[in-house]
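Sample A.
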Amino acid sequence: MSVDAKYWHEKWEQKDIAFHRSDANPLLVRFFSALALKPGSRIFVPLCGKTLDISWLLGQGYRVAGAELSKIAIEELFVQLGAKPTVSKAGKLEKYSADHVDIFVGDIFDLSADILGAVDAVYDRAALVAFPDELRGRYATHLMEITKKAPQLLISFEYDQKLLEPPPFSVNPAEVKAHYDGKYSLTLLADESIPGGLKGKCPAQEQVWLLR
């Protein structure tokens, strides 16, 4: 299955966002300290949507950069944060900025290292698993280029795709290693079954990786 920009825009326009959590991801809360970052570090969250993980990261004293296709999602994010963003052009993207937050709206493949600026770590909870098979390798390579191989906390899912229409796509440990082994040292921090299954529909494992 191919998932294109139109698919995601329609999801946000129709408020079909079952993938959006109403709290910070518990795996982020449990494992973020594994990155051993200094206060004030800048974290990049690719395909961030309006995740409450951003609010949690800001609350821990970090700065956040994000990339997101949907302008609707980002306008709602800033309402959630209680912040009025300044909007400017950043190459082909729009940059929404407020205190300690910069979100780049548009196609992540149009985001360059220069536009993004320096980041200390990546929190990928929704990006690798959002891309279909034919784009995941390109995404992983692009992410390493624009972040200069910053360490990552990566969350992935493994399940039988015949039982559930993606996204999120199933990305097993062998594939994570195929994309990142040799560029990072990989540590599997957790491999847990999702209570009630993925989207409440099929058994699935959720894996947390530290890439350094």
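Sample B, a different protein:
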Amino acid sequence: MAARPSAPVRNALTPPAVNTQVHIIGGGLAGSEAAWQLAEAGVGVRLSEMRGGGDMTAAHQGDGLAELVCSNSFRSDDANSNAVGLLHAEMRNLDSLIMAAADAHKVPAGSALAVDRDGFSAAVTARLAAHPNVEIVRERIDALPASGLVIVATGPLTAAALAGSIGAATGSEALAFFDAIAPIVHRDSIDMDVCWMASRWDKGDTKDYINCPMTKEQYLAFHQGLLDGEKTEFRQWEQDTPYFEGCMPIEVAAARGVDTLRFGPMKPVGLDDPRTGRWPHAVVQLRQDNALGTLWNMVGFQTKLKHGEQVRLFRTIPGLENAEFARLGGLHRNTFINSPQLLDETLRLKAAPHIRFAGQITGCEGYVESAAMGLIAGRFAAA
């Protein structure tokens, strides 16, 4: 029997052998969801993701598709009284890959939908890799394609060369803001003789959050520590970049007033300390971050404090005196386009209608909203 000819060897920039009809740039939440919607509609997809091909962003840790770089929460899952919960339900009804993976890898979080971030990303990656209509290519795209149907879903951490190409095509400067990442603590380093389990602000019957109580004196000292702590220094061109209000560094919020945190992420309402039977003056809450329950993230504690300052200051929180950190907080600059001016009603770039944009690069906020933008972009392209 004659030997079968071997498959041709091609590099990452060679046109794919499959009959690709839509090229998606970016394998985050929006890009992954758009790829799934197109593939399920019978449309071939080439999904280009630079992570895994030798490149990395300022915030990602690995090369899995749909990696969550900040919180592990998709926020409220209550479809009856919360807009985000309603969006969850609508996306499930539209066969959302992102929601299916989130449901399969959820961890306890009260009425919120939180996920084991590694299991979630692995599930999205596996389902897309197994789909016959999807080709995943680990490559960096440096310029907007001149032809063919394209969806740009590179998120706010778009590589510099492609960001420059987008700027040249749109003729307008990108808007920008800073986003921050919260620390993650090893569960076995938390002192549960001081902390206790309860629901978020004692809402609901579950006890899914670890609570670290503070007296007034402890809180005031911690607040001053946030103000005095050494922080990341900005370069000159970054000086006027605003913060994303939905993920503001805790020290920036603290600077707005001594009680700002007590009415925000450190709100003690409804949380009776079992040792005193009373609400503490303030409370730090931690939410489960992985399915094993070994990692917990500090809710609302995204920060631009330098790493040494984070360890020193956060170990002054009662119950976290011996905390070991799996990840410390960080800060990164996000960019996005001026969508109301640049895109039409189906997310096409007015100056180049073969190109659509989806996800956070369009200026939307949040994991769920980004995935939803990918969902509708994919369906628009399929249509």
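Observation for Sample B: The chain has ten helices and 17 strands.
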